[in-house]
Fold this sequence. Notes:
This protein is α+β, with helices and mostly antiparallel strands. It is built from eight helices and eight strands; from the N terminus they run H-E-H-E-E-H-H-E-E-H-H-E-E-H-H-E.
Amino acid sequence: MKLRKPILLVLALLWSFSAAYAQQAPQPLTFWSQYAVKPGKEEEFLNLVKTVGQPVRDKLMADGVVLAWGVEAPMLRGHNTTTHTIWYAVSDWSGIEKVQNGIAAQFAKLAAEEAKAGEEGHKKGQKSSGMTTAERARDVFEADKTKDFLTRDLVFVAGNTMPPAGALPYTRYNFIKVKPGKADAYRATWEKYNKPVLDKLVADGTVLAFGLSVEEVKTTGDLTHFVWYAVNSLSGLDKVRSAILADRDRRSPEEREAITAAFLAASEPDAARSAVDRAIMFHVAGQK
């Protein structure tokens, strides 16, 4: 799943889920769009985000449709063509439709405004003031390398503390290829041995949110699942690693062997990949 190697996936921090949602075991959807931004065009790419997508996503967030959205970039560069990812999270497919329709309408609105301004300028003998939004988009990123993914969190856990406005978290992704017919076994093993460690780290504020996710629409057979967790700073990654190692160290040799055997029986370790993304823009519902 080239859900960005290094991408993705974050997923991210859907603190906007209420306690009622928590009782219903929310499984939010996240739509990811990966872009290959041309060198030197990074600032213009973000300007396009602010012009086209941000007004739509912010409006739908205010309406309760979008739960969170952001722009990410991989910390480790050069492993594929993706340089930036825009993601947004919603509760269901109807949310996807509303965002997609909103983006299309925003493009049409901008095109109409630009055409009108051009006509008025032409009548006054003025030269064009510059490229249109569509032309800017073609100039900023390589459209043929754009990729979209839609994922669902099978497990989603977030802390009780809303991240402050301006927060730019880091997200680690662990991509896994689960063997055919072993999805339930893998999830059970992960929830038994790894989730309790992450639950404690959410409780003490080290981890902001985490999840176990899959593609809602299957696009590739490279990977089947990914685990993600978001932290305020890179030091949080050290704390997660230390907590997992400490959990294993307190167990008997027999327990450690059983845990390793269970994960190996359900997944293909040679196919595993990891990535760390840094947030460039990050918005979550209810954030002050």
